[in-house]
Amino acid sequence: MSDQTSPQRLYSWGRSRFESQSAPVVWAGRVLRAASRNLGDFPEVDDALVLAATEERWPQAGDVFNRLRRRRLDQIAPLNERQVLLFTLAELVAKVAHNAAGVRPPFDHDSGWRIGPVAHRLMSATDDSRLRAELTTALGGRPGDI
Fold first, then answer.
1. Rounded CA gap, 3 and 94, in Å?
2. What pLDDT digit, counting tens, does each position of 122-140 carry?
């Protein structure tokens, strides 16, 4: 795969991380929990965390996704770069939960594959070593040679 660009390798890494999970929605929630530390208090992100941890709520993921998307796009109270990445992760968690619940129509089949790459972008966008360490642990490692 030496002819792949770094984004392609990162995407492949994200796919393998996601597909290796026995409980992908729970794993996605752990990544989101690690990402949410020190980036602000957002009830929409809290809803995504509760969603990921509670299988009975997965059918409500479409509503959670819509609230997250509206907040992320809100121009009246814009988010900073790291917060946008946090909301993007939360949206991906909602998509994964929605798909796992079998609700129709499904979100993109590769939504879970993008969790690793977005978390990696967040690690690259911060100088917070604790945040980077917690994300690395939640992800189950870092991509090699990116």
1. 33
2. 999 999 999 999 999 999 9
Q: How far apart are CA 42 and CA 40, in angstroms?
A: 6
CB 141 within 8 A of CB 118: no
What is the tens place of the pLDDT at every residue in 31-61? 999 999 888 899 999 999 999 999 999 999 9
- Contact present, 35 and 143 (Cβ < 8 Å): no
Burial of 116 (0-12, 13-18, 19+ CB in 10 A): buried
Q: What is the pTM of this model?
A: 0.93
CA nearest 122: which of 109, 138, 104, 106? Answer: 138
Q: Which residue has the tokens 């790291």?
A: 82
pLDDT in tens, 97-122: 999 999 999 999 999 999 999 999 99
Give Cα 40 distance to the centre of its chain. Answer: 16
Cβ 81 vs Cβ 123: under 8 Å:
no
